[in-house]
Amino acid sequence: MKKNITRRVVAAAGLTGAVAMGLTSLAAGGATAGPLPGGTVTRTLVDGTPVTVQLFDEFVNVQRAVTNVQTSREVWVSGKVKVTVGGKAEGGSVNAGYLVGCQVNFGASAEGGAGVSQDFGGDPAPSAEAGAGFSLGPGQASYFPIIETTSGTDTAYSDYKVNSYSFKGKSGGVVYSQEKFGMDGCAGYASAKAKIKVTVSTDAVKGVITLYGKPFSIG
């Protein structure tokens, strides 16, 4: 089934080069922008297949919403994801996005910081579409996908949304630039962090490796 990328996300078999970005911090209540450390993790599946996931050139730009409402934020995120597989694996799929919370301390949660897990389950459906806005109250969290594709051609299935990118071969990845999401209704502090989930299958095993980026404040 044909897969069409409909967002500003570029799939690449190999990722090279980097864009130099400075750090800007304006007065309180204004915009903040700067690079994030990303992360790298290498995991060996139970059948000996090595998988490496890298998040780099990650950059965030946080601004107060144009409505100038204290409980609203607007965020732009950029970054690059590269996945390398070995052994008998021939490709995989990448699901990338951001966990966003209102008065949720991601650093103290089970998913805090950069880490990795291997399991055989799936993620719940994304709670926000790419480029969309959503409302969060105290203690609530949501997931913002930065990949949004559609499957099919001019059929009844052409509007079926897919929030992952599949690649073949030994390496693949995605590049996203200035992907925007807005959050409303959060009267307290808000934070977010990247979540990169890679699924790799061989004849013997299906592995899910998850990389979490560093949490950052969004006001």
Describe the protein.
With 219 residues, this protein is an all-beta fold. Helix content is 0%, strand content 52%. The chain has strands spanning 3-5, 9-12, 24-25, 32-36, 39-44, 50-64, 73-85, 92-102, 118-119, 133-135, 141-145, 149-151, 160-162, 165-167, 171-184, 190-201, 206-212, 216-217. The strands form three sheets. Strands 2, 3, 4, 5, 6, 7, 10 and 15 form an eight-stranded mixed sheet that branches. Strands 8, 9, 11, 14, 16, 17 and 18 form a seven-stranded antiparallel sheet that branches. A three-stranded antiparallel sheet has the order 1-12-13, with no helix packed on it. It is elongated, with a radius of gyration of 18 Å. The protein starts with a strand and ends with a strand. Residues 1-8, 10-30 and 108-126 have low confidence and may be disordered.
Brief account:
By secondary structure, the protein is mostly beta strands.
Salient structural properties:
219 residues; disordered N terminus; seven-stranded antiparallel beta sheet; elongated; mainly beta; eight-stranded mixed beta sheet
How is this fold's topology laid out?
Elements: E1 3-5, E2 9-12, E3 24-25, E4 32-36, E5 39-44, E6 50-64, E7 73-85, E8 92-102, E9 118-119, E10 133-135, E11 141-145, E12 149-151, E13 160-162, E14 165-167, E15 171-184, E16 190-201, E17 206-212, E18 216-217
Parallel strand pairs: 10-15
Antiparallel strand pairs: 1-12, 2-15, 3-4, 4-6, 5-6, 6-7, 7-15, 8-11, 8-14, 8-16, 9-17, 12-13, 16-17, 16-18
